[in-house]
Amino acid sequence: MPIFSRLAYQFIRWKSRRGLRDESENVDSTKRTQKQRTGIRGETFAYWFLRTHGYVFVARNYHPVGAKGEVDLIGYDGETLAFVGVRNLRRYRRSA
Fold it and tell me: Is residue 40 part of a domain?
């Protein structure tokens, strides 16, 4: 593995130690809005789907310093570092 990739991997792993924890344990689930729960479900589904396809993740919900927004998942697909952004399509049920 090239030295730059190795340094990037070590840096992201160091910064993401907090990001791999399940943050939903600290927040009461009744306070979350439907939109937040849908987003968490989508990110969790994407995480497990990609894990079954061989990705090795080093960070979840990573907030880069000085940047706007977050990166949902950061992981390796073989020797390739992948930055994954998850989008959800909500489906609404109509009451009969």
Answer: yes
